[in-house]
């Protein structure tokens, strides 16, 4: 390789004197793209879109986290609490399909409200009322689950009385 470099260095002026014609460059381009389908171009476009989308998502979540880091902590806390309460309630709900259905409907309704609040939060990151509404939604979920667990535990301890009591 050293001999090639030496030759190019010594003969630089002679080598730079000639320019390839437009037809030569056209032939080179044709050769470069021969055999490559449109699939490769679409894959590169898809990869670029994925990178842009991920960057935007990271920017958005960093923006919320910088403005309200306590919101992220609250969401983690309430989601863990709700999951724990639901895990505790699941075995008690197996004997009460009507109650299980009602709980599922209530939680689904609260989840859809929560999704709407989060959409509002994207538009109004600095709006304290939206953040409070989100936290209130989480508190309602936990309260429903805690109340339901109390009733289920009471019915589990006193199986004779639960025939007369409506939940």
Q: What topology emerges from the helices and strands here?
A:
Layout lengths: L1 H9 L1 H5 L5 H12 L4 H30 L1 H25 L3 H27 L4 H30 L10
Helix pairs in contact: 4-5, 5-7, 6-7
Key structural traits:
single chain; 7 helices; 167 residues; mainly alpha; 83% helix; 2 domains
Measured distance between first and last alpha carbons: 87 Å
> How many structural domains in the coordinates?
2
| Number of extended strands | 0
SSE topology string: HHHHHHH
The number of helical runs is 7
Biggest beta sheet summary: none
Mean pLDDT: 75
Overall, the morphology is: elongated
Helix content: over 70%
Q: Pick out the low-confidence regions.
A: none
SS class: mainly alpha
The share of residues in extended strands comes to under 5%
Cα-based radius of gyration, to the nearest Å:
32 Å
Brief summary of the model shown:
This protein is an all-alpha fold and 167 residues long.
